[in-house]
Amino acid sequence: MTRNLVLPPLTRTARDAEAFARHAHAGQTDKVGDTYICHLERVAARVRGWAPFLSWDRMSVDEIIQAAWLHDVVEDTPYSFADLRREGFAEWVIQTVQGLTKDTSEPYQEWIERVATDVPSVILVKLADNLDNADPRRLALVPEQDRDRLSRKYAMSIPILRSALLACGWRPDGVETIAGLWPDRSPASSSQGGQG
User: Fold this and answer.
1) Domain 14-188: which CATH number of 3.20.20.80, 3.90.320.10, 2.60.120.10, 1.10.3210.10
2) S-S: 177 plus which of 25, 99, 145, 172, CB 3.0-4.6 Å?
3) How far apart are CA 43 and CA 71, in angstroms?
């Protein structure tokens, strides 16, 4: 006689996703020469702060954070979606990573417009990713010709993603969350009469 499981099957956690991402991205650097994992740390931290304000019951906050850690694995490393499955990541996590993995043949604006119609976890992670990439402190370190192109790219994508996320019922609360999404409303600029 076969018995049903008493306990649920083991599931992967955000710590597991972080460990896998650290392994997969080992030795990689970003556009400004920083260790690539630092970008993933910032995206995961932003998602950790934002995900609880997303009313979407298909994924837990931990699973959305997993997707944040893994969002560039398939695009920027030799690992595949099949590898993520073999490692035991949940199907919703893998589907979110699939939604975040850009096909190089698709124009960026078309891809962003498609992402904006995807599930909330995809939109949330992509917005956090783009905000980190658009950080003026980081863009200042990029060569000028790339800086201008990237500034235009993110100036186009961030409002699209933000609007899509708000349309999904995301209601951020708190100064840190607002400051992360609307930099001109940061505590420092608020004390200066809201000038950004």
Assistant:
1) 1.10.3210.10
2) 172
3) 9
